[in-house]
Write a structure and sequence with these properties.
126 residues; mainly alpha
């Protein structure tokens, strides 16, 4: 990132702040890390700073938002507590071979899907 700062007249503290924001954002698991994305993001971050966004918190938040849109990948969603419980109920039912009983959750819901996945996994555990 520092090579893009040659054109700018920035104080060492400003460069350090930009570098910290850059390092934090590219280290996120959603950031698709490759040379092109790093360079493009460095340019974006510097342009945001040059446009007058100098508050580090605001700059970080805006840069994060832009980086997610431009350089991010979808991350798997963490199941809710209710989905975990439905999955565990499915496992218990699968272990007891209760697959002839209807799914207790609303059809096409995430809870129904969690229960079905648990049911199948429970059957495999036998």
């Amino acid at each position: 990132m520092r090579r893009y700062l040659i054109e700018c007249v920035l104080q060492p503290e400003e460069i350090d702040n930009l570098q910290k924001i850059f390092d934090v954002i590219i280290a996120q698991p959603w950031f698709v890390l490759n040379d092109v994305n790093r360079e493009m993001f460095a340019v974006d971050l510097i342009k945001l700073y040059q446009s007058g966004i100098v508050d580090c918190n605001v700059l970080r938040d805006l840069a994060t938002s832009r980086a997610i849109r431009r350089f991010g990948r979808e991350m798997p969603r963490t199941p809710s507590e209710n989905e975990r419980k439905a999955y565990e109920q499915g496992i218990a039912a699968g272990r007891r071979h209760l697959n002839d009983r209807p799914n207790p959750y609303p059809e096409n819901s995430t809870l129904a899907a969690a229960y079905e996945n648990g049911l199948l996994d429970g059957q495999k555990l036998q």
